[in-house]
Amino acid sequence: MPGTYATLVAGTGTSGSGLNELNFPAGIYVDETDNEALYIADSNNNRVMKWPANAASGTIVAGGNGPGSDYTQLLSPYDVVLDSSGTVYVSDLGNNRIMQWAKGATNATLVAGTGISGNAPFELNMPIGIRFDTNGNLYVADSGNNRIQRFTIDSTTAC
Q1: Per the structure, how many domains does the chain have?
Q2: pLDDT in the model for residue 84
Q3: What is the pLDDT of residues 84-125, one digit of tens each?
Q4: ∠ Cα 113 124 129 (to 5°)
Q5: Which of 5, 23, 31, 78 has the smallest C-beta neighbourhood within 10 Å, fewest atoms?
Q6: Residue 120 burial by Cβ neighbours in a 10 Å radius (0-12, 13-18, 19+)
């Protein structure tokens, strides 16, 4: 296409699990308060990576301890957003939950879903997209239940 070109900004173009590689990157979040750092839901590596602008590799900020349901693990993370305090929120698709990782934390807090697939108001089934509104409500695309759920988190820290 005329006037269109792409620049590789994260990963190598080949799947892998090194800190310079990605394997099925799904959701991304651009942190405009941190020099355009990318947060990447690296789905098949069961982790979220922070990739600083112009860096050759990233760092793990959530998961990265193999696939699983422990609060130090993720299972096919699909999307990622940050709140104004730098807390990372992850749609943990394979575990049917939304996890919160405080800045520098090695384990997460469950903020939505139960970790078991279901269709009750407090349950999720394959959550994919997540976004905050200006009031601190977390919206979840609950794909397996064909609905959008709204969860009240903490309106003082949300974007």
Answers
A1: 1
A2: 87
A3: 889 999 999 999 999 999 998 999 999 999 999 999 999 999
A4: 100
A5: 5
A6: exposed
3-state secondary structure 57-97: CCEEEEECCCECCCCCCECCEEEEEECCCCCEEEEEHHHCE
Position 143 pLDDT exceeds 80: yes
Q: Residue 83 is which amino acid?
A: D
pLDDT at 133 over 60: yes
Nearest to 88 by CA among 137, 151, 128, 130: 130
Contact in structure between 40 and 10 (CB atoms under 8 Å): yes
One-letter amino acid for residue 58 of the chain: G
Q: Which helix (H) or strand (E) holds 30?
A: strand 25-31
Q: What is the mean pLDDT of the chain?
A: 93
pLDDT in tens, 26-41: 999 999 999 999 999 9
Cα–Cα distance between 150 and 32 in angstroms, integer? 25
138 within some domain: yes
The CATH number of whichever domain residue 119 belongs to comes to: 2.120.10.30
